[in-house]
């Protein structure tokens, strides 16, 4: 099972603007943003690049967790505590 966590689009300043899935909390997104991408990928997160064919300056990515939402919550708690 693959769980959608959020989508992110880059603004003109290069900062990512996140749109979260319904069940994902602001605290969980803060944890995700604070952990390096390669570390999240090691723990089961997948980043899929998105771009617009009509607007060349629109770029972003979708974040998925390769597993159920409950498993993601447990993984994030362990990552936040530094146990993984």
Structure description:
This protein has 84 residues and is of the alpha+beta class. It starts with a strand and ends with a helix. It has helices at residues 26-34, 37-42, 69-81, and strands spanning 3-10, 16-20, 45-51, 59-65.
Q: Strands of the biggest beta sheet: in what spatial order?
A: 2-1-4-3
Work out the helicity level. Answer: 25-40%
Main sheet record: 4 strands, antiparallel
Number of strands: 4
Name the features:
single chain; 84 residues; alpha+beta; 4-stranded antiparallel beta sheet; 3 helices
Which secondary structure elements does this structure contain, and how are they paired or packed?
Layout: E1 3-10, E2 16-20, H1 26-34, H2 37-42, E3 45-51, E4 59-65, H3 69-81
Antiparallel strand pairs: 1-2, 1-4, 3-4
Summarize the structure.
Helices cover about 35% and strands about 30% of the residues. The protein has helices at about 25-35, 35-40, 70-80; strands at about 5-10, 15-20, 45-50, 60-65. A hairpin with a 5-residue loop joins strand 1 (about 5-10) and strand 2.
